Amino acid sequence: MLLGNQMNDQSQSIETVILAAGLGTRMKSETIKILHAAAGRAIVDYVLDLAESLTDRKPILVIGHQRESVKEHCGERARYVVQEDQLGTGHAVLQAAAELGSSVQGSTVLVLSGDVPLTRRETLEGLITEHRRSGNAATLLTMILNEPALYGRIVRGSNGELLRIVEAKDASDEELLINEVNGGIYVFEARDLFETLSTLSTNNAQGEYYLTDVIARLKSNGKSAGAMVAEDPVETLGVNSRAELATVEAELVRRHVDELMRDGVTFRNPSAVSIDSSVRIGADTIVHPFVTLEGTTTIGRHCIIEPGVHLKNVEVGDHVTLRTSTVAEEATIADHASVGPFAHLRPGTVLGRSVKVGNFVETKKATFGDGAKASHLSYIGDAEVGADTNIGAGTITCNYDGVNKHKTTIGAGAFIGSDSQLVAPVTIGAGAYVGAGSTVTKDVPPDALALSRTPQKTIAGWATKRREEMKKKPE
Ligand code: UD1
Ligand code: MG
After folding, report:
1. Which backbone phi and psi does 372 adopt, to 5 degrees?
2. Catalytic site residue 36?
3. In whole angstroms, how far apart are CA 470 and each of 24, 151, 460?
4. C-alpha gyration radius of the chain
5. H or E element at residue 94
């Protein structure tokens, strides 16, 4: 609570700079790395969330590569400064000086990397508290890695004090053995930061202005700098490659699934589901393995979501069963409905309470009233189906004449016999019957029977006679 109060008092004077100008060549992508999605949102969205959770000041995003796409994506969430040429992380932060203006002098600057999305708010609050407690000019977040790879190494003195950061490409063999590395997240006193940035050089392996060099320079100017180790190294994991993107996505899903389980959702195999951060699920719902839930999907309470279900922007009520391999997009499914296995609900499908849509049924722009059923092998498109109507197996709404789509309207309590074609535009009245195998081309009044199949002819003994004739034929 104390920390919370402290944060509120001090948050006014915290400015955030997010570095996002680099393309990310190791991603081998046409898209800038911060716009790659993990758990349904761009990497940079998570960093913006973090900045917004810590201060009321709008974050400053340093942009360069694909700046128009980045601006379009982030919109009003950020202030933008452009780094024309990517001359290094130090140069990137320096670009924010003008936007911050002279008012920045007495404030604290939090520098985040647009490609580091997993840091927790609590960790950054701890970092800022430590920064203020120690009176440092700079405090950064580090992590301990078994394989420190290409991260900057943290060089400490004999008493454990922070001396400098050395980039992997500039490090000696001995320095490369250090497994405490720079997480790319820093808190600076603004005046010290900008004074030092303007003195950086590019005398290093990459010929860049390294933000990391600020540490050694501050120290040689008699200022203090410190480093805090993040308890969980995943918090400072950067997205530089597809492999790291996959690790970040897995962690985002893991955190979300953990939260859902705490709120009462059962996952039969929590590591075998793919769920966007935006998806909501109610208590006592059971989610089987190999389920993919995307976008604005919400699922109510007491539902069963069987293996292979894939939902995108779908609203599911309570007590709904979605059976194996049901695919649905932009659809609404009310309480107590049952769908699948192998059903395909396309955009504009609205299923009422207790509706049953069975195997190999496809729907599109179709509204089913409460209790309506289409249990097997049907296509119901551009249609309105009344409450408690039964659609027999193999029913097809012929909604397309090659140019336009037409509507089929079926009243409540109707019975559509199996293997019928309803040629739209057509209306079947409430309580009407359509005989199995009919092709309906004209409206059917309420409570009528429509039958369009040809009458059956049965000839007794025909088959026996034919077989005898076949035998008599010469070879
Ligand atoms: C950087 C750090 C390294 C640290 C690692 C943590 C430096 C010199 N190195 O290395 O010590 O361990 O992050 O993830 O800072 N960017 C710009 N403009 C530039 C260069 C980079 O905006 O001119 C942005 C990138 O888009 C990215 C961030 O800064 O969002 C970090 O740059 P990146 O190239 O990923 O640096 P690393 O090699 O990961
Ligand atoms: Mg990086």
Report:
1. -70, 155
2. no
3. 77, 85, 18
4. 32
5. helix 89-94
Ligand sitting nearest the alpha carbon of 24: 1
Q: Which atom of ligand 1 is nearest to the CA of 184?
A: 6
Q: Three-state DSSP class for 363?
A: strand
- Confidence class for position 285, pLDDT limits 50, 70, 90: very high
CA of 445 to the centre of ligand 1 (A): 71
Task: Indicate which ligand has the atom closest to the C-alpha of 154.
Answer: 1
Residue type (1 letter), 157: G
Fill in the amino acid letter for 307: P
Is the CB of 349 within 6 Å of ligand 1?
Answer: no
CA distance 383 to 408: 5
pTM: 0.90
Pairing mode of beta strands 108-113, 180-189: antiparallel
CB-CB contact of 358 with 343 (8 Å): yes
Q: What is the best residue among 18, 85, 113 to mutate for testing ligand 1's pocket, by most ligand atoms within 8 Å of CB?
A: 113
Q: Is 181 in the pocket of ligand 1 (CB under 6 A)?
A: yes
Which pair of tokens denotes residue 347?
């955009």
Q: What tokens were used for 456?
A: 């059956």
Respond yes or no on whether the N-terminal peptide bond of residue 117 is cis (omega within 30° of 0): no
Separation of first and last alpha carbons in the chain: 100
Q: Omega of the bond prior to 341 within 30 degrees of 0, cis?
A: yes
C-alpha 33 – ligand 2 centre gap (Å): 10
The C-alpha atoms of residue 293 and residue 465 are separated, in whole angstroms, by 61
State which H helix or E strand residue 80 sits in: strand 79-82
238 CB less than 6 Å from ligand 1? Answer: yes
Residue 368 contacts residue 386 (beta carbons within 8 Å): no
Cβ 66 under 6 angstroms from ligand 1 = no
Taking only the tens place, the pLDDT of each residue in 30-70 is: 999 999 999 999 999 999 999 999 999 999 999 999 999 99
Using CA atoms, how far apart are residues 155 and 140, in angstroms rounded to an integer?
Answer: 13
pLDDT, tens digit (0-9, with 9 covering 90-100), for 327-356: 999 999 999 999 999 999 999 999 999 999
105/107 Cα distance (integer angstroms): 6
Whole-number Å distance, alpha carbon 151 to ligand 2 midpoint, is 8
Q: Ligand 1 mean position to 125 CA, how many Å?
A: 22
Residue closest via CA to ligand 1's atom 10 equals 151
CA-to-CA distance for 140 and 225, rounded, in angstroms? Answer: 8
